[in-house]
Amino acid sequence: MSVRIHIPPTLREWAGNADKEVIVQPGSVQDALIQLADRHPAAYRGVCDETGAVRRHVNLFVNDSLVRTPADFERTLSPGDELFIMPAVSGG
Amino acid sequence: MSERVLICIGTKKGLFIAESSKKRRRFSLRGPFGPGIDVYSAMIDTRGTPKIFASSCHPFFGMKIFRSTDLGNSFKETKSAPAFPEGDGRAVANIWSLEPGKGKRELWCGVEPAALFRSTDNGNSWEMIPGISKHEHCEHWQPGNGGLCMHTILRDGDHIHLGISTGGHYLSEDGGETFSAANTGVGAGFSPDPFPEFGQCVHKIASHPDAPGRLYMQNHGGWGDWDGPGGRRPDIGVLRSDDHGHTWRSIAKGLPSDFGFPICIHPDNPDVVYVVPLEASTRTCPGGRPSVWRSENGGDSWNRLSSGFPKKESFFTVLRDSMQFDHLKSPALYFGTTTGNLWIGRNGGEDWDCLFESLPPIHCVKVAVV
Asked: Which residue of A has its CA nearest to B78?
């Protein structure tokens, strides 16, 4: 089994109509982002800036757990896990 | 096709294009392009076939540059936007200025955090210009209220002037290879030293092709009543240089406030200068009565222009890139407000009309006759 990355509608539109879901091989969260960069560079650029940091108003979740600390990014994703890319709550 | 006036209006919610015949009686509006996303900078490139460039700064997902080759009827994303090179450690947070470069396909771009980029292929690829972007001062620059932005890029042969808030005025005399802080006479109200070498909160700089070496600056004024450390710093807000920006002197005497953001020069006369004074504490029209102030003698004296503006209860702000002239016979001056009004000042700013009164907050206004 593999890991499914869910790309939100606003990012899909911003990234030239990227796929709704991207299937990647199991590994760490960081590995999943590298695979995203290879296959959908525009979507990856919407998630991470040029330093590799996740953008300030973007949150990542593994299943229902927020990815925040460096250790979270090293967390091993198991087959069947889902990585959700979510715009953070903000408005105005 | 006959010539028409195009206005690019960059707003908090996308880019709008207003268009009129040369008579400027009625303007049509189209957009928003890049809907919902901040557009802080735009450029109408009249070199050869006209093109429009605009930044689109997504607060969540990053930066893009849009380009139109059909006078703003449609836009496409360029192949890339400015980005810091790998290992630099900085990330582009906003795009503040777009200006034509030396060659026909060359563009210059100022970003936040303050750095300068150049494209030689109409915005498809970008390289960082290290002479300013890796300047020894850059780690000492501080963000102003709008961020640490490079908002002004002026080219005069091998002289290149940059305005950074808060970094000050930087000058290159070798076409952009090297830059030096050039702020003698430019004050700062927020540092113990009233006249530091660099770090001033420059708001906008303007130049005119008929007066090489002369520059006008709207600096962050409003420190006339300051009684904190270092004492009062009156009249540091509106300045003039006659030596390519090496030294500056105040021309603020006669204005109701030396605080403001934009500064413009009449296209037919480098002695005719315009500012929009604001109350420093609120950044709004003094007394709720909007006015543009004009000097016809290079800043020696100023006159209030207010015909057509509300007489009271008007408290908008005009941001640094939101005022520009067209270049028709009897040029008109345009400005946009944070309350979403777009104004036209016909006859060189003598007579004002509101062209659009309910746009999103306006970040920038660029005008060309094409």
From this structure: A16
